[in-house]
Each structure stands twice: as structure tokens, then as C-alpha cells.
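Pair request: fold both.
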Amino acid sequence: MTSKLAYILAASHSGSTLLSMLLGSHPQVVTTGEINLSPQAIGSLDRYRCSCGELILECAFWQKIKEGMAARGHVFDLSDAGTDFKASDSAYARRLLNPMVRGPWLEGLRDAALSLSPIWRRQFRQIQDRNAAFVSTALDVTGAGVLVDSSKIALRLKYLLRNTELDIKVIRLIRDGRAVGLTYMDPAGFADAKDPGRRAGGMGGDRKDQGMQMAQAAYEWRRCVEEAEQVLRNLSPSQWIEVRYEAYCSRPDETLSRICQFLEIEPGKLPNSFRHVEQHVVGNGMRLDTTSKIQLDERWRSTLSKQELTVFNRVAGDTNRRYGYE
């Protein structure tokens, strides 16, 4: 029997954490945010907080996940969860896995080159098994019917779609590239918890070392859009749905009802305050905010300079307009 997984495919900072938590407040849905767990994503485990507020090493939910994984034959450790396809022991494989998804010919070459690595072949099967075990464990622990994975990464989705133990539906989330570009330039100020002390997983910090210049930010967003398009070309229309960040912020009930219909779960069971529903999410720092108010964030309109907008337009303007953002 396959486990149901809803995968949010998006560029980083497109609103995936908020969307996953809104869906996770539905009684038939559970989310842990990004299942693509890695030491780089978590950071210092002894200081990292679950969205429930507990230190993640003391969270009862994650202890149950650990026990459930053990019952399925997997030693589960958040510092090395074994769910990230890019975390290979082979330096050769890691180099091949680094580029974003491209067209079918280049992806065929990537897969052929990866198949030459015995380490990758062995670990690929192990990673697939651990992802399937994680999904089934989370569903068993919570009694939910669908798990939402907000990992966003197209390459991860490409490989998960080959997992015969998972029944996957894709939520393709899109946000104005200018807004996303601003978050890449200043992730702490525009894509993290409002309380500076809760940023970076509850450890605080300004994240200035992660900021980009607009040219790089625009290119990063454009490539995320392009690789998502490549993966979706291989899916039937029944397997994926397009959702706009601006739409679910402006019309959350209407948008979430449409997603519920797509996921074949009952609509109209979302609470007024999604923060009051117990959830155990890792990922973007907004999961540690306290307000349930859904507010459209268009600070890019007043923050980006004319020069920065010109740079964005040169690098990614055509792509942005193709999705209706003028």
C-alpha cells in the first residue's frame, strides 16, 4: 500500500512553509515542513526549536518519529536523517547532483553518469526507503491521510516520483520573482521569523552571510522556475496543481478549498487559527511566529530600488511576465 505525499514545488521563500502549515491544520493532513532534512538545514540541534516551541531534541513528536522509524528498521537521527538525495558519501555523485534540473537530454546524461557510481546506486535505494518509511511513520503517528513535504526542490521531486511506495501529488507554488528576489537579498529581514531572536531555527542571527546581489537572486529564482517546469512536463495534469502565493494570501479559503479537492480530502475543515493546531514543522523561521493572520507581503514594491528592479528585469523579467507579473 502506498503512502500519500503532497509535495510543494517552488522557489525558496515563495510561501511554502505558511502553505504547508495551513494545510497541516486540516485534520486529514500532517506536515513536518521540509522532509529534505540535512545538517545544513537544521544547524545546531541542541538549540534548534520545533514549531511547537520545544527544543527539537526534547519534542515528543520527533521522539515518536524516531521510534516509528526504528520499528521500520531505520535508525533516525535529525542530524543525519538520510532523506536528502544530495547527501551522498561519493564526492563524484555530489558533483553530479549539484546542478539544478535541466532538459531531458541532460538529465539522462546525469542519471547515466550517476549509475556508474556503486556508492550512489546503493545510497539511492537507501534514501528512497528512508523517505517512504518517514512518510508512513508520520502518517501512523498522527492518524492523517496525507503528508505535506515543503522541501520545494525539483531534483528531490524528480527522484521521489520514482518511489513506488509513494503516491505523490504536486502543489506547484509560484510567487512574484521580485518578492522572492528581495528575500534572497535579505533572508533574515524578509523571509524569517519576525522576532530576531527566533530566526535561524530559534537561534537568532542576521544571516548576512547568506545575502545575494540582485543579479544572482534573480538568476536563482528564474532557474528554480525553469527546473520546476522541466519536472512538471513529465506529469499528467491530474498529478499537479498550480497555486499562487498572492491568491492564497488574498483568498485563503477559496485557494485551500481547491487544494483540498485536488488532494481528495474534505474541504471546509480548516480552523480560524492555524497556530492553535499542534504542528511540528522544521524549515523557514516564520513557523515560530505567533500570529495566524495571513497577510500578503509585497514589501518589494517599496524596498527595491529602481536600479535593482532594472537588474531583475534584465535577468528574469521575461519569466516573471510569462506568469502574469507585470
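--- second member of the pair ---
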Amino acid sequence: MNLPRTAGDLRAAGHLPRGVKTEIRENLLAALREGRNPWPGIVGFDRTVLPQLERALLAGHDFVLLGERGQGKTRLLRTLVGLLDEWTPVIAGSELGEHPLEPITPESRRRAAELGDDLPVEWRHRDERYTEKLATPDTSVGDLVGDVDPVKVAEGRSLGDPETIHYGLLPRAHRGVVAVNELPDLAERIQVSLLNVMEERDVQIRGYTLRLPLDVLLVATANPEDYTNRGRIITPLKDRFGAEVRTHYPLEVAAEVDLVKQEAALVAEVGDHLVEVVARFVRHLRESSAVDQRSGVSARFAVAAAETVAASALRRSALTGEHPPVARPIDLESVPEVLRGKIEFEAGEEGREIEVLTHLLRRAVADTARARFRGLNLRELAEAVTAGHPVATGERVPAADLLAALPELPVLHDVAARLGVGPKDPAGRIASAVELALESLYLTRDIGKDSADDDRAVYG
């Protein structure tokens, strides 16, 4: 409420207009100097993508984020909002959010000349200065740049009057950030309309002589297959982007785990060891020759897998009355059936999708158990199971029943401690840890595992 409300007040306060790229550069430098993270919520890009992106912004370049689906490109673009000033002055009532000291449209210039220092000023929040457009084949030049507004013509203005123009998305993003998702999907003739915006920093609408000096940061995302192989981004447009930044999937299991824990909306407790299984499973999928790697395995797959595991645990709690609901390794079995449609397989793998997914999921379980139980001798547990203490698990088997099937063994305390579970924790957490150890012994063929008629699995 204490901010200037007229152009005169703004000028008296010593406010100087600055371009959006200068604004972003100065705010980014301030964040780096102060040790603040300018990229909240971005995981796994610290040493690779973010340094390149920061250099592009400091250079004042428009840029393309190039990467497969589900690599966080759109999320990264949306964090650019945080590099804008929280509040910026605009001419009150202006269509394009022009700066009160630098009007660019004929109407705003006329108002500025008539009102002088009394030109009214509004303040726009930075969230309103980010514009996002999903490129679709039906996008028109009028959508992006503008066209003649028949309503204004009908009101009595002549067809050649610049004020008959209805401005498109790019002019309306003046003094802000414009993000175009999936840029190669724009028709080539539509891409031409972006050339002037990126180089001459103006737009040309139909036959009008009006030229608006736009101040925008234009950023885009693209898939490598579209961008490099199909040639659907016209060469002059490629040339106008100052930087191309390659994104990637998380390079380390820990980063994948952090991403899943950050993004997944879990309806039941899913222990870190099961999230790690999901993370390793996704990494195996990205390395598998049976999966079409040109399509990629999205981070959304890992998030959906964790949410499916949580949903399975919640369903079991409803069936057994167990509370609180805690996921166990048995809940992982729901993932291949539910999520196989999210993966593109190679042409020769038809009919083997579930087999491939199940095999890779078991590998992920084995890898996680090996990492978590390294140096821990599970022979005592294996001997107890094979010597007459079979253990049943399933969607109708409560955690208490699973634990009651085993005698008191010191190794069980060690197993639970390795997974951060204490003796006073709920039975579901302890059962989840014990079941991972049992599944590990089964996968290393130290114990057996049979399916019962009532959908139970019995370790014995």
C-alpha cells in the first residue's frame, strides 16, 4: 500500500525501468552471492543442468531445454518466476502491462502524454508475469502475436487504426517470461512469427505498420527426437536461441529417491527402503534393452509407482483393520500390472511386458536389500523359516500375523535397525523390514516361496 501510485511518485522515488533479462540477471547474482537456492524443488541438476542454465540467464540468452519426457523441464521453467522482482509497476488499465515510464502502445503513449505525472500506476506480482503455452498444431499466429479485433472495428474505428488490434500471447507477456512447451509441435509457418520477437524484439501484425518493442525472455522445451531428427524446428528459429541446455534423469539413486519423496502424494506410509526399490526399478527400466529408450521412462512413472504401493497398503489396511497403513514389499507386486501402459517397449517384446517388469522389479528389490543389509548375516532367519516356521504374506495378512509366525530372533532386531525401525514402532514398519529380508533370502534362493490358494505367498 505504500508503493507509488502515479508516474510522478514513481519518478520521484528514483525508480528506473530495467529489462526483464537484466532483472533476472541481477536477482540471480544476488541469490548466488547470498547462498540462497534460486531453484527450489529442483532435484538432481545441481552439478549439470543448473550451472548451464545460470550461464544462459547471466548472458541474457533465450534458451531451449532439451530432454526426454518427465525430466522436470516445465518445473524448471516455472522456477524462473522466483528470479523476477516480487512487485513491478505497470500502467493502470494497460493491456500489455507496460512500464509507466516506458509506454509502448499508441493508447498508453497518448494517456502518458495527456496525464503526465498523474498517470495511474498499479503493481503486478511476479506470478502474473510468467506465461506458459503448450504448442499444439492448431495454434495460430493470432494466438501468439495478435490479429484484428472485429468488435473494435464495429465500434467505429477504422480498419487501419492500430488500436483495432487484439494482442496475442507474446505482446501480453511484455516484461515477463514466455515458456513454449513442446516447441517442435508448432507448425513451421507459426514458428516464423517468433523470429522477430527473438531477434528484433518486436512483433508485426498483418499489414499494420505498428511495431512494438517487446521485452520478453522466451524459453522453450523440446524432445530430442523431435528437435534433432524430425527437423521440425525451423533453422532460423534454432539459430535465434542463445543456448540449448540438455536435461537428464536423476544420475544417482539418492536423487531419484528425493524426487519421489518430494512429488508423490502418498495415502499410506511407504518406508525409505521401498521408495529406494521404486527408484532402482525405474533406473533398471531406463537401462533395459526391452524398453524403448527413445521414449524414455518418465520420473512420473516413479512417482506413480510409489503412489500405487501406498494405495495397495491402504487397501490392505481396510481389509485387515490394520492401523496405521504401512506399505510392505508385497505391495510392490501391484506396480507392473497397474503401470505397464506408461512404458513403451521395443517391437519384439509384445506379450512379455509383465515378465520384463516383474524381472526388473525383483532385481531392484535384490539390489536394495543387498545395499541395506550389507555385512548382516541372515542365515539365522533362513534357518528358522526352513526349520518349521513358514511365514505367510499377502493383501489379507496383517503385519501382526506375519511377525507372529517367527520366533524371537536377534537378527530381526538387526534387520529392523538397518532400515531405521525401532522395537516400539508400529507392527507394520517392523513387518515391512522383516518382509524385505525374507524376499531377499528368496531371491538369493536361501528359502522358498510358494503361492497359496487364497492369494497369499508363503516363505518356507
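Observation on the second member. Residues 253-459 form one domain.
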